[in-house]
């Protein structure tokens, strides 16, 4: 194992991000999105792995989307290592999610050099960020009501403030509402006379678009489209999965005090930590999050983080909560491709630098390669490889 860990090359991780850094969005940069998928597939093929393209459609959108897969030649239930390759509009996505693509590809290269006794599958999912059909509808409404221009920018500072206020209120009400539409209605009521008639009309149409969506049904409806489709089809085929390592926005660290924050329902005291300070105010660690089915997977991964040849600081939250409980208590932890696996009681870990709770450039044009720490990414890759070998 140690000889394989030594083979992890941060220079290769850097080059993968350099090659994939660009906006990759189904509505605005479809060609670049498909080019990224081709790049991932070509890399997998160059490692001599078994490759596959899982195709899926999105209702209301005329395009066939691709999840890119590769697997080792082992046998038995699979350990799956996943990333996503799409971005939001205007974001080059070096960290979200180029960092994860790069770690996945380097782990695949290193693992392809040996003869693992088990079966390891690598998947890069598409459409983690959004459902393009819904995004298209929302963009059309915003343009029709003068809320945004053709480049997706708010048409006035006043409107940007109102929409930010609506977003904050919606987040506040969503955990106490049966549906996203109900939360939107409460937000509109609270904003009251502060809304112009045009702003109110726009938000009421957004409310209609949110009908039927709630805290547990949104994965596969508004986002996480590729992973939801893959899990659905895999279960229909009787696919056997041992566990999942979900790599997500993982390349940024900070030594500044108070650089780390936590989402609603989550507290530093809930985490088991290694190599970082106890109050978790400094964003210098990898967050490892697992549900009630993921105890053994979390123990294995964290054990390898502590290896002398890895020494990866982490904060691990693995407790006896289900998918349903997570959705209602700390719904932010469902915001990646592990969520469809949790929903089906498949062990999965979210591995992340915590994205917007640490990374100031999250979902912005400034999400570029110069913000990332490649020693940190190499350590993550080593922990992923060691976990795959041990399982």
Q: What does this molecule look like?
A:
The protein has 2 domains: 2-129 and 221-251 and 329-390, Aminopeptidase (3-Layer(aba) Sandwich); 132-209, no CATH class. It contains 13 helices and 9 strands. The protein has helices at residues 2-6, 10-20, 30-46, 94-112, 132-144, 157-174, 180-191, 197-209, 225-236, 295-305, 323-329, 339-343, 374-390, and strands spanning 50-58, 61-71, 75-84, 118-125, 241-248, 272-274, 286-290, 314-318, 348-352. Strands 1-2-4-3-5-9-7-8-6 form a 9-stranded mixed beta sheet, sandwiched between helices. Strand 7, helix 10 and strand 8 (314-318) form a beta-alpha-beta unit. It starts with a helix and ends with a helix.
Instruction: Supply the helix-strand structural class.
Output: alpha/beta
Could you name the CATH class of the largest domain? Alpha Beta
Can you tell me the residue ranges where pLDDT is under 50 for at least 5 consecutive residues? none
Main beta sheet strand tally, sense and closure: 9 strands, mixed
Number of helices: 13
- Biggest sheet strand line-up: 1-2-4-3-5-9-7-8-6
CATH topology of the largest domain: Aminopeptidase
Instruction: Note the overall shape.
Output: globular
How many domains, in number, for the residues?
A: 2
What number is the mean pLDDT?
96
What's the topology here?
Layout: H1 2-6, H2 10-20, H3 30-46, E1 50-58, E2 61-71, E3 75-84, H4 94-112, E4 118-125, H5 132-144, H6 157-174, H7 180-191, H8 197-209, H9 225-236, E5 241-248, E6 272-274, E7 286-290, H10 295-305, E8 314-318, H11 323-329, H12 339-343, E9 348-352, H13 374-390
Parallel strand pairs: 3-4, 3-5, 5-9, 7-8
Antiparallel strand pairs: 1-2, 2-4, 6-8, 7-9
